[in-house]
Amino acid sequence: MENVLLLIISASALCAADQLPKITYNFVYDMKTWSEAQSFCRATFTDMMIVDSPADVKILMDTVDSNKLLNLTNSSVAWIGMYNDLNSWSWSLEDANFYQPGEADYRNWNLGEPNFAQGKVQCVEMLSSGTWNDVPCEWSRKPICSSVTGTTQTFHFVNTSMSWPDAQAYCRTHFTDLASIRNPTENQNVMTTKILTEGVWFGLYRGAWRLNNGSLPTFKNWQDGQPNSHDEVCAVANFDHQGKWENWNCADARASVCYHIVRYSHKVVHLKLQRNSVNLNDPVVLEQLLTQLKQKLRGNGQKGLLNLSWRRKSDGLVFHEFKTPTGEEAE
């Protein structure tokens, strides 16, 4: 059989066609910190599992073996690929050409701010003093909008209280965007534009909870009362509560869930074998050939999942006899 196998390898003609990748999910019961779990998932699979839809929640719940969880500390929870990025302050006006070097990083925080109260505050107001304070986005404030031409902006005070998201939508509809404050001069200009005794919205905000790929989640599945601490900035899924999210200390050891993207390449191999005493259409022989071919491919460095099968003709046979130019028979 070895001679046949070598002939298979040397006579191979490969045609490849990409297929849609398959995603598999793996529950890791070894207890790790969040960063250890992330490193393990990235080294062994693709990354920690991202949960960003009801369908993902169902996959998550189907992945866990509740019997194995019983032996673990805090057995009802496991790390998922979401974290609170406490330093992800961004401007609503994202055009990089609008900011000179260092301008996008200008800050004028009030003493002790930002304090990330309860891990929920994501938006920024200017206080009556001109200093800045991070507060929940659902609070009601009057906004400062801006009209932008090139790198020049004009500030507009809107004398109507609204939430930060509503203020952003209003400014983008009627002007250019919520105001960006790039330097002390612009900070003073906003002070003279607004009512002095009131706090106002402007364009600085924090994306807060992010998925492991860096994007913002489009789906929320928090347990009631969560998140509840700015010191606990890594997310778990709680399997006692239908996979609801909770924020935990990233240094705690927990189980975790990974995902793996399997990319397929479909290859068709056409074989011509010299005739021998073996019936090549015998199911046992066909299976042995596949096993040997798989071993040979592994030895040549083939990685990933490897699935080999025979392609049968309409008569159900794999190999068919034909005559070579020299008159010798082959299969």
Describe, in plain words, how this protein is organized in 3D.
The protein has 331 residues and is of the alpha+beta class. Among the domains are: 22-83 and 220-262, Mannose-Binding Protein A, Chain A (Roll), CATH 3.10.100.10; 90-206, no CATH class. 22% of the residues lie in helices and 27% in strands. The protein contains 7 helices and 18 strands. The chain has helices at 2-10, 34-44, 54-63, 66-69, 164-174, 184-193, 283-299; strands at 14-18, 22-32, 47-48, 77-84, 89-91, 123-126, 132-135, 142-149, 152-157, 177-178, 200-206, 209-211, 234-238, 244-248, 254-262, 265-269, 322-323, 329-330. Strands 2, 3, 4, 12, 13, 14 and 15 form a 7-stranded mixed β-sheet that branches. Strands 5, 6, 7, 8, 9, 10 and 11 form a 7-stranded mixed β-sheet that branches. Strands 1-16 form a two-stranded antiparallel ribbon. The protein is elongated, with a radius of gyration of 31 Å. The model is unreliable at 1-19 (pLDDT under 50).
Whole-Å distance between the termini?
15 Å
Molecular shape: elongated
Low-confidence stretches: 1-19
| Helical segment count | 7
Question: In angstroms, what is the radius of gyration?
Answer: 31 Å
Could you spell the SSE succession in H and E letters? HEEHEHHEEEEEEHEHEEEEEEHEE
Give a short account of the largest sheet.
7 strands, mixed
The secondary structure category is: alpha+beta
Total number of strands? 18
Which percent range describes the beta-strand content?
Answer: 25-35%
Helix percentage range: 10-25%
- How confident overall, as mean pLDDT? 82
